[in-house]
Amino acid sequence: MVNRKELNPDASPQAALGARLRSTREALGWKQKDFAERVGYSPTQVSHLETGRKMPTLRFVRSTDAAFGTADTSESFEREWREIKHGVLLEGFPEYLAQEARAAEIRLFEVGLVPGPLQTREYATALADSAVRRGDVTAEKAAERVELLMERQAALKRTPPPSVFAVLDESCVRRPIGGDAVMDGQLQRLIEFAELPNNALHIAPYAMGESRPFDRAVNLLTLSDRSVISYVESQTQGQLDRELVSVLPLVRSYYQLQTEAFSQAESIAMIEQLRKGTP
User: Fold this and answer.
1) Which of 50, 63, 109, 236 has its CA 20 to 30 A from that of 258?
2) Which residues pair with 204 in a beta bridge?
3) 96 pLDDT tier (thresholds 50, 70, 90)
4) 21-35, 127-141, 237-251, 259-273: which has the highest mean pLDDT?
5) What is the tens place of the pLDDT at every residue in 107-129?
6) Once rounded to an integer, what is the mean pLDDT over residues 4-29?
7) 44 beta partners
8) Domains of the chain by start residue, with CATH
9) Main-chain dihedrals φ then ψ at residue 166, nearest 5 degrees
10) Upper half-sphere CA count for residue 10 (Cβ side, 13 Å)
């Protein structure tokens, strides 16, 4: 019997892509030999790619998308390959995106900036352009960031839609991004988000002080089998975690955060006042 190597998708973006390749292939009931014949590669090459030992080529990911029927979709392997190749995403985030696109429930917390799934294109573009001016990224990578975000948002507009719970630190709605028009449009987007029956929006006010449990972005996904994945991000690192012992405390803290934050009605009232220019 051939030894089956256990995969660690958290090891690197390359490993995450390989693990996703294997899981997709196996979900279709294909052996490595079957898949290799469909994409025009040897089973050994496929094995090296699934285990993350080698980075796939553009030709391979395009052949993979053709075989799986994922070309030009939010789950395109070519899209993920480009994200990794061009360094647009933090480590762990490509796998997170793949899971987010399937999650039954999504819980978001953010400090300082509106979280990506709730950003308008104009708001996202203002952030990307600022990164270019600072010399952090090229204009090409900045444009990729915005398009990736739009694709991410499109993946959430599925049937049935996921339930999305967002808790925003007060700084997210008070920090001006992109000028008055851009910020007004962003605040309006938050109101529209909250009006949807499957969503919930809360503002964590400054008055929470030290009782606010998180100081950086936290994302929690509940999958269809009720398992939970966490993704915690800093300025330079992202950490994806499936271990219950470390994920469960984040879930508890998130529920505590929701309880102590403003209600949705109070949160919307604050946003409406900000749109009117009232402190």
Assistant:
1) 236
2) 169
3) confident
4) 259-273
5) 999 999 999 999 999 999 999 99
6) 85
7) none
8) 13-83 (1.10.260.40), 97-118+154-275 (3.30.870.10)
9) -125, 125
10) 11
pLDDT number for residue 3 = 58
Give the pLDDT of residue 22.
93
Side chain identity at residue 102, one-letter code: R
pLDDT at position 90 over 90: no
| Whole-number Cα distances in Å, 201 to 88, 109, 161, 215 | 28, 10, 16, 18
